[in-house]
Amino acid sequence: MMERLQKFIAKAGVTSRRKAEKLILEGRVKVNGEVIRTLGVKIDPEKDIVEIDNKIVKPDKKIYIALYKPVGYISSLYDPFGRRTIKDLLRDKVPFRVYPVGRLDFDSEGLLLCTNDGEIANVLIHPRYKIPKVYEVLIDGIPKEEELKKLREGVILEEGRTLPAGFEIIWENRRKNISLLKITLYQGWKRQIRRMLALFNYKVLNLKRVQIGKIKLGDLKPGEIRFLRDDEIRWLESLKA
């Protein structure tokens, strides 16, 4: 079955489809020895030989992992400042090269998906697909209903107006003046939740992501991983349609 070159590269786990398109336009991709510089070219994955920077692209087995990223780790495989990264957590547990899907801040924790499926990674992080990400956020203070309403409808940050989101109070302690919020976002700007709450002078004490789409953190403990179940992988595959 013929498929677009950039889709083949993404499915092979090399990079996302968008970055694959950039590689093609830069003239770094060959098909059967011929440099391809235009998008839309179709190949036969069973017969054609694809190279990137003169290295043959071989589709990897697709790996999908749920990781509980603890506070104090970078959502990257490398940090120039020598801080701990998720690679330190995956090194002895995953005999495959996988990449984080999106990010969690250094001082945040919870569910982080890792995969070598560039196409799925692109779908999960692109706001166009509106994949819900659910967080449990402990804050200093108890938001008023009118403040929650504004947060739900969208507020203005440096990048623009945030998409409509879910903000609700799970529990509150008036004596300690703290509350736990359930927040559902459909985009992932840098430190978005912290910046949104800061507009109303609320400080985040703890931020944990507990769900991405149909994939839940569940009983994972900080630093633990699990390979996704078949039903979760089927859901991911359905996103490609």
TrEMBL record:
One of its GO terms (cellular component) is cytosol. Keywords: Isomerase, RNA-binding. It holds the Pfam family PseudoU_synth_2. Residues 3-62 form the RNA-binding S4 domain. InterPro entries: PsdUridine_s_RsuA/RluB/E/F_cat, PsdUridine_synth_cat_dom_sf, PsdUridine_synth_RsuA/RluA, PsdUridine_synth_RsuA/RluB/E/F, RsuA_PseudoU_synthase, S4_RNA-bd, S4_RNA-bd_sf, TruA/RsuA/RluB/E/F_N. Its EC number is 5.4.99.-. It comes from the Bacteria. Coiled coil: none annotated. It is an enzyme of class 5 (isomerase). One of its GO terms (molecular function) is rRNA pseudouridine synthase activity. GO terms for biological process: enzyme-directed rRNA pseudouridine synthesis. PANTHER family: PSEUDOURIDINE SYNTHASE FAMILY PROTEIN-RELATED (PTHR47683), RNA-BINDING S4 DOMAIN-CONTAINING PROTEIN (PTHR47683:SF2). Belongs to the pseudouridine synthase RsuA family. This is Ribosomal large subunit pseudouridine synthase B. It comes from Dictyoglomus thermophilum (strain ATCC 35947 / DSM 3960 / H-6-12). The lineage of its organism: Bacteria, Pseudomonadati, Dictyoglomota, Dictyoglomia, Dictyoglomales.
